[in-house]
């Protein structure tokens, strides 16, 4: 990509960002949590599941297992039962238990603040690590790429890739670092309400004039 093309892309990304901030001024992480560990667990549960459903499950889970030490020694079947309604519950329960054990044994019960340490945890990829780093610790290490962020970033012409890691890299090059996480949260709001997967409401979209994929007419 030439420097001129990159400049145009960055300009469009910044304009999208400005409008998203205007459209969703109070956008925040929609998972309920009180500690970094609770956010980590909730984010693991949110894979292929709505945040609303996760928020229905976590109060009982966190009351029964309030910290990494209790989760690390939890009975796996009991854990599976508590998270069953979030889907893929066997994998999720195993990842939560194994991650908690590593946090308890290797990190003194505290969720680490470094990306490379977070990525050591079972079941934790960059998406989950970015959510925890940004929302629990206020550290923007990357752009969280979920299905909404991937779809909208592609439609807006900000990436041509399908792989989340490459999409993240493209977005990091055109967005200011302090806005990396709120970009994702606002794009998720927009993806849920306007730019849906099957029937995007381009006629009602405040980004349509910036979007190469907009179907207006």
UniProtKB/TrEMBL annotation:
Keyword DNA damage belongs to the record: yes
InterPro entries the record matches: DNA_glycosylase (IPR011257), Endonuclease-III-like_CS2 (IPR004036), Endonuclease3_FeS-loop_motif (IPR003651), Endouclease-III_FeS-bd_BS (IPR004035), HhH-GPD_domain (IPR003265), HhH_base_excis_C (IPR023170), HhH_motif (IPR000445), Nth (IPR005759)
The keyword Iron-sulfur is annotated on this UniProt entry: yes
Binding positions ([4Fe-4S] cluster): 195, 202, 205, 211
Domain of life: Bacteria
Molecular function per GO: 4 iron, 4 sulfur cluster binding; class I DNA-(apurinic or apyrimidinic site) endonuclease activity; DNA binding; DNA N-glycosylase activity; metal ion binding
Entry's Gene Ontology BP terms: base-excision repair, AP site formation
Sorted UniProt keywords: 4Fe-4S, DNA damage, DNA repair, DNA-binding, Endonuclease, Glycosidase, Hydrolase, Iron, Iron-sulfur, Lyase, Metal-binding, Nuclease
EC number(s) from the headed UniProt entry: 4.2.99.18
Domain HhH-GPD per the UniProt entry, residue ranges: 45-193
Function noted in UniProt: DNA repair enzyme that has both DNA N-glycosylase activity and AP-lyase activity. The DNA N-glycosylase activity releases various damaged pyrimidines from DNA by cleaving the N-glycosidic bond, leaving an AP (apurinic/apyrimidinic) site. The AP-lyase activity cleaves the phosphodiester bond 3' to the AP site by a beta-elimination, leaving a 3'-terminal unsaturated sugar and a product with a terminal 5'-phosphate.
Protein name as catalogued: Endonuclease III
Species this chain originates from: Limnospira maxima CS-328
């Amino acid at each position: 990509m030439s420097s001129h093309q990159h400049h145009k892309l960055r300009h469009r990304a910044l304009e999208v960002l400005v409008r998203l901030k205007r459209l969703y001024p109070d956008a925040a992480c929609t998972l309920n949590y009180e500690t970094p560990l609770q956010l980590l667990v909730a984010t693991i549960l949110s894979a292929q599941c709505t945040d609303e459903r996760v928020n229905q499950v976590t109060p009982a889970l966190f009351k029964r297992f309030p910290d990494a030490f209790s989760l690390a020694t939890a009975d796996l079947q009991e854990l599976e039962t508590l998270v069953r309604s979030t889907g893929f519950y066997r994998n999720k329960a195993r990842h939560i238990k194994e991650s908690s054990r590593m946090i308890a044994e290797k990190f003194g019960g505290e969720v680490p603040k470094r990306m490379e340490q977070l990525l050591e945890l079972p079941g934790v990829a960059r998406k989950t690590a970015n959510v925890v780093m940004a929302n629990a610790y206020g550290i923007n290490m990357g752009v969280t790429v979920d299905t909404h962020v991937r779809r909208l970033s592609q439609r807006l012409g900000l990436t041509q890739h399908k792989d989340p890691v490459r999409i993240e890299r493209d977005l990091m090059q055109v967005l200011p670092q302090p806005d990396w996480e709120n970009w994702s949260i606002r794009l998720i709001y927009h993806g849920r309400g306007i730019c849906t997967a099957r029937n995007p409401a381009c006629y009602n979209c405040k980004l349509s004039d910036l979007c190469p994929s907009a179907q207006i007419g």
